[in-house]
Design a protein that fits this description.
alpha/beta; Rossmann fold; FAD/NAD(P)-binding domain; eight-stranded mixed β-sheet; 26 helices; binds flavin-adenine dinucleotide; binds 3-acetylpyridine adenine dinucleotide; EC 1.14.13.22; Lipase_GDXG_put_SER_AS; FAD; flavoprotein; hydrolase activity
């Protein structure tokens, strides 16, 4: 039977239980409890019950061991290890026992000693091999499985002695296990959790080896068996009171022994000074209460303890890898906690904030240069923009084959984009592929935000604070926080009073949203709204779009990529990448026409603009003449061409005029690419509200009130954009020399040198920071250029014995003047765009991207570097 068939029949059993068809007495008695478990556990229990086997406590130990072993045979093999070695240790009382050292493929960053469960009577290291390997792979620790002596052949304290001897053996052999001294973690499940807790107490009492963390998975902590769970049959799935009695009777038949902390760690008089602990429990487990009580008692004694209860799970779920999906979830959770814990105790060379494309590539580069590096990321995975923006229709507006990393030719060749403009899920998949390929996640701490970063002038290091309570000391602090990652919270009165559903495009629910049958309002008509609106309109009963400023949008003409064009690009990728780097915006085709718009007659111009339009390339219209973005008359010609296109796409003339932008030059707010955007307004269920005529007064509990009255909605979608360029940086309390806050320094607008460095903030780098080309370019081209430059700078500092580098005030001021002059040569400052901070009330108005072009900018950065980092001070 295949695994899938197995699940199919298991699930059928679960349904049968629900329908009351299964006649097993045990199941009938506990049917309502079993259904409280998740489906996989329910199905597993049902299958087990259908076998009609007696409980372990009704068997002889040998028989029970065989039965337990049979379940373990269904676990899939664990991941490959760099090495697996079994050794026999001679314990302090002369008895021998086996340990298995599972070494992960990378250099181990910890040694995790795992004591298996089984009531001190059952189980062995072969049965825990899969789990051990999974732990090694996920945590990056060498895992040492311990085959301690079992009862009743060897009663208490034999197992506890072996467990401690395993610890001292690991401590003595740590360099051969891990290559260097690394933190030791003691871990175990059930009776193994008991042994881990006991070992931690003994190490403390005897001043034994340092233990960095205790991982106690539903540990047995008290032989008194008097916590509420023992009296409640609802909690007794897979492990019940009679079986616990059977275990204790075999392990410590002498009731006096059970009162000793060596058997019942909860009986210890003083729990202070124990290593930090992670206590994992299951909701329906007879051991839940005693495990959590032990965690709480340690907490009360001042030990840092995290208690995590897995809802809808039963005893032993953690140790059934491959059988229960919850085991994988719990393993990932434990992995993240261990990541976090190991990180707490480390100092690193560099901290990178953000794991979008910028943070990912920066991590890869610094690792290659041998720097110990940690990335802190708020999300629970990589991808940045493409992790957060999951609204319907989200896709790239620069051709996918061009919007991709160029730094690794193999990556470039192995990845195949499917569409001209790939949708968000495909780009996220690409980011995840990059993370897997370069094994990035092991140095990324997810679900964690950096809240503060303080520069310590005495140590010349940054102290980086996170919302999980960590403080990480780093020589370099690299902000890869993104230009468009700080959501602009809806700045409309009453926005938080709406009682229906609200969505923000940049924080879209992962499970998606079904608008079927609903009355939906969208607020905003920027790039996000333009992509989402056609999809929402198709689903919703009615859609009302609230537009303040219309956008210029052209059709993307998106389509699947043809095999021949993929191959063509892959064959010529190197030349293409070179062209990207040497182009104004990193988008080399269609090439910029160096003729002014006035130089051509109406017919030729129309033909040229038609060709640009048909290309479906974002920059085609602004590249059609050299002066589109610098000469109002030239811009008017192209803008009017686009307005005519809008008029042709929208049937109702009044709606078309409302949608046609007239208050700012084309290209000076980010232009958009769409699929059926304007055509959507030809649908009967779509309505456009012109907020210039009827501004929003407030959002009410039931809808949106404009000056023309109130409309009620089931859902409101805020496509209202971002606090761009500076938002993500200013939301962190970054303080440099003399405790200067970045936010204060930037009170009248961001000041940087090259968008890479800030005077007064040594060793702080900003990837695609303000005053660099960033958002005016193909962002991946700009990200790669910055990451390469920063990495080269750090290498240069190390080669030349410099500890710190920072921009000088003079260089920063000169760069600001150059930026302003460059922007003022164009039409850009005329628009109330987010480029200029106009979308955020109260934000200072300065043009925040370098307009001189990616090509020119690259040349400037390279010249500065080759001139010994002119404009920077080093120490
Ligand atoms: P991001 O991808 O924004 O990643 C920054 C990361 O930092 C985020 O994951 C965030 O969670 C994390 N972070 C921020 N602050 C903290 C903190 N304090 N603590 C911990 N973590 C933090 N650009 C293009 O060139 N072409 C496009 O087609 C394009 N399409 C886009 C579509 C959308 C919907 C949006 C919003 C932007 C688009 N962009 C596009 C710009 C896009 O942001 C960049 O292309 C690129 O993805 C940015 O990568 P990044 O790593 O610099 O930043
Ligand atoms: O945000 P936006 P976005 N009341 O700021 C309106 C990239 N991106 O998320 O213009 C009423 O552009 C606001 O009106 P106005 C791309 O770089 C790329 O759409 O301020 N309306 C505007 O219409 C893009 O530029 C893609 O008058 C309010 C809209 O909300 C950037 O991300 C896809 C309002 C916000 O538009 C941001 O795009 C998506 C209020 N109080 C994003 N506040 C691609 O296609 C704001 N608005 C690749």
């Amino acid at each position: 039977m295949s695994a899938v068939d197995g699940w199919g029949s298991a699930n059928r059993y679960a349904l049968e239980i629900a329908a009351g068809h299964v006649q097993s007495r045990a199941i009938r008695q506990r049917g309502n409890v079993i259904m409280k478990l998740d489906l996989a556990s329910t199905a597993f229990l049902a299958q087990l019950a259908s076998l009609g086997a007696p409980g372990f406590h009704e068997m002889e130990p040998e028989e029970a061991r065989l039965a337990g072993g049979q379940i373990a045979e269904s676990y899939p093999p664990g991941p490959d290890m760099a090495s697996v070695r079994d050794e026999t240790i001679t314990g302090s009382d002369g008895a021998g026992f086996r340990v298995r050292v599972l070494s992960p493929t990378e250099t181990p960053r910890a040694a995790l000693i795992f004591y298996h469960g089984g009531g001190w009577v059952l189980g062995d290291i072969d049965q825990y091999d899969t789990l051990g390997r999974q732990l090694a792979k996920r945590t990056g620790a060498a895992v040492i499985l311990v085959d301690y002596r079992k009862a009743p052949e060897n009663r208490y304290p034999a197992a506890a002695h072996d467990a401690y001897d395993a610890l001292t053996w690991v401590d003595a052999n740590i360099t051969s296990i891990a290559g260097k001294r690394v933190p030791i973690i003691v871990a175990g499940d059930s009776a193994g959790g008991n042994l881990a807790a006991v070992v931690a107490q003994r190490a403390k009492a005897e001043n034994g080896p340092d233990i960095s963390l205790q991982l106690l998975v539903y540990p047995v902590t008290d032989g008194a068996m008097n916590t509420p769970g023992y009296a409640n049959p609802d909690n007794q799935l897979l492990l019940n009171t009679p079986l616990m009695e059977w275990f204790w009777d075999h392990y410590a038949p002498n009731k006096k022994d059970r009162e000793e902390p060596g058997a019942s760690p909860a009986r210890a008089k003083d729990l202070s000074g124990l290593p930090p602990a992670l206590v994992v429990t299951a909701e329906y487990d007879v051991l839940r209460d005693e495990a959590e009580a032990y965690g709480e008692a340690m907490q009360a004694a001042g030990v840092p303890v995290t208690i995590k209860r897995f809802d809808r799970q039963m005893h032993n779920f953690f140790a059934m890898p491959g059988l229960l999906p919850a085991a994988a979830t719990a393993l990932e959770y434990v992995g993240q906690q261990i990541d976090r814990h190991l990180a707490t105790s480390s100092e690193v060379d560099a901290v990178i904030v953000g794991a979008g494309f910028a943070g990912m590539y920066q991590l890869h580069k610094l690792r290659q240069q041998g720097l110990s590096t940690r990335v802190i990321e708020r999300a629970d995975d990589v991808g940045g923009t493409w992790y957060w923006n999951r609204y319907p229709g989200a896709r790239v507006d620069i051709e996918s084959m061009a919007y991709s990393f160029s730094f690794d030719e193999e990556l470039e060749q192995e990845w195949t984009w499917k569409e001209k403009y790939s949708p968000q899920p495909e780009i996220l998949e690409y980011a995840q592929h990059v993370a897997d390929r370069f094994d990035l996640r092991r140095d990324i701490t997810f679900e964690t935000s950096v809240t503060r970063a303080l520069y310590n002038e005495d140590t010349a290091r940054w102290n980086v604070y996170t919302d999980s309570g960590e403080v990480i000391s780093a020589q370099y602090l690299i902000m890869a926080t993104g230009c468009l990652s700080a959501i602009k919270t809806p700045d409309i009165p009453g926005a938080d009073t709406f009682k229906g559903e609200t969505y923000i495009t940049g924080l879209w629910p992962h499970e998606g949203v079904d608008f079927s049958g609903k009355k939906v309002a969208v607020i905003g008509t920027g790039s996000s709204a333009i992509q989402a609106i056609p999809h929402i309109a198709e689903q919703a009963d009615q859609l009302t779009v609230h537009q303040r400023t219309p956008a210029y949008s052209m059709p993307a003409f998106n389509r699947p990529l043809e095999e021949t064009e993929i191959q063509q690009m892959k064959t010529t990728y190197r030349d293409y990448r070179e062209a990207q780097r040497n182009h104004l915006a990193g988008i080399p085709y269609p090439e910029r026409n160096l003729m002014p718009a006035a130089a051509e007659g109406d017919n030729e111009r129309k033909a040229r603009l038609e060709t640009a339009w048909e290309s479906g390339i974002l920059t085609a219209l602004t590249s059609s003449y050299m002066d589109v973005l610098s000469n109002q008359d030239a811009n008017d010609l192209v803008s009017e061409f686009v307005r005519d296109k809008i008029r042709a796409r929208v049937k109702d003339p009044e709606t078309a005029e409302t949608l046609a932008p007239k208050t700012y030059p084309l290209g000076t707010k980010r232009p958009c690419l769409d699929t059926n955007y304007y055509e959507t307004y030809n649908r009967d269920n779509v309505r456009l509200v012109d907020l210039h005529k009827t501004p929003i007064q407030e959002i009410t509990p039931t809808g949106v009130r404009t000056t023309s009255g109130e409309d009620s909605y089931d859902a409101i979608v805020f496509a209202t954009g971002f606090d761009a360029m500076t938002g993500a940086l200013e939301r962190i309390d970054i303080r440099g020399i003399n405790d200067m806050a970045l936010k204060d320094k930037w009170a009248d607008g961001p000041h940087t040198y090259l968008g890479l460095s800030v005077a007064g903030f040594p060793n702080l780098f900003t990837i695609t920071g303000p005053s660099s080309p960033s958002v005016l370019s193909n962002m991946i081209v700009s990200i790669e250029q910055h990451v390469d430059w920063i990495s080269d700078c750090i290498a240069w500092m190390r080669d030349n014995g410099h500890t710190t580098i920072a921009a000088t005030e003079k260089a920063e001021t000169e760069w600001a003047i150059h930026n302003e002059q460059a922007a003022n040569l164009t039409l850009f400052p005329q628009a109330n765009s987010w480029y200029i901070g106009a979308n955020v009330p109260g934000k200072p108005r300065t043009f925040m991207a370098y307009i001189g072009g990616v090509d020119v900018y690259r040349h400037i950065c390279d010249s500065i570097a080759s001139d010994n980092y002119q404009g920077f001070e080093t120490a």
